[in-house]
DNA sequence: TTGTAAGCGTTATCAA
DNA sequence: TTGATAACGCTTACAA
């Protein structure tokens, strides 16, 4: 690898001048600038990012923390972030937290050591008061995740609305017995509380009382979906519709339902969440809630880069709209 | 951020000694080692990777180049690579090439500038003679991709066998008219040539002549699958079975077939490739070729780390086995 | 067994 | 408008 000194030598100028050219500083004559550029070209010179980092420069690298990259929701989100970042001249370091607190902290440390300029968190494992101090070392943006009273930009979806319109759709289709699956708990606080609230609100407005037996917490995978359906099949009083927390759960439920000759949506209507490619491949095609993943990723990158350029920037919360995609499963 | 000097000061020892402790050098007395450790603890010290890199040390960062992270095959592969690497104390920089030659080169440059210790390539966009020179700067391992006569370790699947057993399975089921989809071309050389050969071999052994009309090249997505099925539907002489290049194509074909009341597998048998989660969710469940993605990822990381420790290591090709998963679509 | 000092490739400061 | 020099945090001869 050639260095700045090589370029200086070849162009007959000083390192300083070369550095100025690299960084587009003013006060370099056109003439010398061209000499430098030519030498750089000739040597195939690329600045060494480690040296720049060490020197305290920006690194044009962003970190993204995702829980699991194999979850399509996150892989699409990462894709959008990566593409946007690349166009803006940034690299992306993708970190998979695996829902592990320690691993999350390890990645946040990259900020401390200037490995990344900023971090986009798409999920949070540790308490905010543990994470908060890292904001001293660089911008942190929350994407698809939020914390009350956190003084960082938040790019999020209106999960409440998503659930509300989904459940309402079921009610309009004539359902009264509506089960509900969530990836979190059915608490007032904590993960997915907004979705829970959307479900409760929609039912309440329709004068429907919640049946606690039809609430399934901590559900995530296809397999979980199958299990939920099994439980439903054993009930004397079965729900006629289910609002699920993800297309995968919905898919799992559909498989199991079919295995027991239950017709969707006639015997049981099912609604997913995410609008993954899968949704269109299921039979019947899945009614689901579409989240504008690409937009979220794009916005997150824009915001974090803006913070980099303007650290005083006022932190805002950006809410993306969410929509119901009606297909055949409801 | 505290530095090595801070630790030295606090522990009353020299930077050198601290450095020795960090790097587990011998010749540090137990006593001093503990002093250092204590000081590090107290200051919450983390070595600055940029400084280490600059100094020419290993970076404990590996790069992985994938074409598209949203492709489940690659997201699972990346997942496996990331997990294995993390356990071995390495971070992973994930690079999405988007099948763009320039982007691939940009990432390979990370090796030149010591941003990553080594790179695992899961696809290759540029000609090998363009990539080859980068091996001077650090190990490159090919995973799921290969190049003849390349002097780098290769971790790959026996694609020939995968296709051969799949097509043979169709023949054993009584099919004679077997269509074939590939992501590449139907050339002797180039992408997917091994799969092509497997198809040809299986047919030849059964004394079946290939019908060129039933060869579909350059197929990748769900949408492609739909289009292929449309074309088949318009044929006077239709194939009774299709070997596809991916579960997605297979899925697309199934959707379209159903839309036209064609029964799978009775009217047309379909076989996928990859055994993605999707395969089990389709109706009928998809017969497909399973690739041991996790194993491949693991092996790639093991090999590349070994090369880092032992640069003289002889390069080998590792071939992973591949198997047929028979479900309901054949 | 420990410490001193040089150097990795940059950029910022200061002087010319 | 240009250049010499110090500094970023670390490791490694070399010396003690």
TrEMBL record, chains A, B:
<dbReference type="InterPro" id="IPR028082">
    <property type="entry name" value="Peripla_BP_I"/>
</dbReference>
<keyword id="KW-0805">Transcription regulation</keyword>
<dbReference type="InterPro" id="IPR046335">
    <property type="entry name" value="LacI/GalR-like_sensor"/>
</dbReference>
<keyword id="KW-0804">Transcription</keyword>
<dbReference type="InterPro" id="IPR000843">
    <property type="entry name" value="HTH_LacI"/>
</dbReference>
<feature type="domain" description="HTH lacI-type">
    <location>
        <begin position="2"/>
        <end position="56"/>
    </location>
</feature>
<dbReference type="GO" id="GO:0003677">
    <property type="term" value="F:DNA binding"/>
</dbReference>
<keyword id="KW-0238">DNA-binding</keyword>
<protein>
    <submittedName>
        <fullName>LacI family DNA-binding transcriptional regulator</fullName>
    </submittedName>
</protein>
<dbReference type="Pfam" id="PF00356">
    <property type="entry name" value="LacI"/>
</dbReference>
<dbReference type="Pfam" id="PF13377">
    <property type="entry name" value="Peripla_BP_3"/>
</dbReference>
<dbReference type="InterPro" id="IPR010982">
    <property type="entry name" value="Lambda_DNA-bd_dom_sf"/>
</dbReference>
């Amino acid at each position: 690898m050639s260095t700045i000194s090589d370029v200086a030598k070849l162009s007959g100028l000083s390192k300083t001048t070369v550095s100025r050219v690299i960084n587009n500083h003013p006060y370099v004559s056109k003439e010398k600038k061209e000499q430098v550029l030519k030498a750089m070209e000739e040597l195939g010179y690329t600045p060494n990012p480690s040296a720049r980092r060490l020197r305290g420069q920006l690194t044009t690298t962003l970190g993204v923390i995702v829980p699991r990259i194999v979850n399509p929701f996150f892989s699409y989100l990462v894709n959008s972030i990566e593409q946007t970042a690349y166009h803006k001249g940034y690299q992306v370091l993708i970190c998979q937290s695996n829902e592990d607190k320690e691993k999350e902290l390890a990645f946040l440390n990259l900020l401390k050591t200037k490995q990344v300029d900023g971090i986009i968190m798409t999920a949070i494992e540790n308490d905010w008061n543990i994470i908060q101090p890292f904001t001293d070392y660089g911008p942190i943006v929350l994407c698809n995740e939020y914390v009350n009273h956190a003084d960082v930009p938040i790019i999020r979806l209106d999960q409440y609305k998503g659930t509300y319109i989904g459940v309402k759709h079921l009610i309009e289709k004539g359902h009264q017995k509506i089960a509900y699956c969530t990836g979190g708990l059915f608490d007032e606080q904590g993960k997915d509380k907004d979705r829970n609230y959307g479900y409760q609100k929609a039912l309440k407005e329709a004068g429907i009382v919640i049946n606690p037996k039809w609430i399934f917490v901590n559900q995530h995978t296809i397999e979980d979906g199958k299990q939920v359906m099994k439980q439903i099949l054993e009930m004397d009083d079965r729900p006629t519709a289910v609002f699920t927390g993800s297309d995968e759960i919905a898919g799992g439920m559909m498989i199991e339902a079919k295995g027991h000759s239950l017709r969707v949506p006639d015997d049981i209507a099912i609604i997913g969440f995410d609008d993954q490619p899968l949704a269109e491949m299921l039979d019947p095609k899945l009614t689901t809630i579409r989240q504008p993943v690409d937009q979220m990723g794009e916005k997150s990158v824009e915001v974090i880069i803006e913070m980099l350029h303007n650290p005083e920037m006022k932190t805002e919360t950006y809410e993306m709209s969410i929509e119901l995609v009606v297909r055949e499963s409801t």
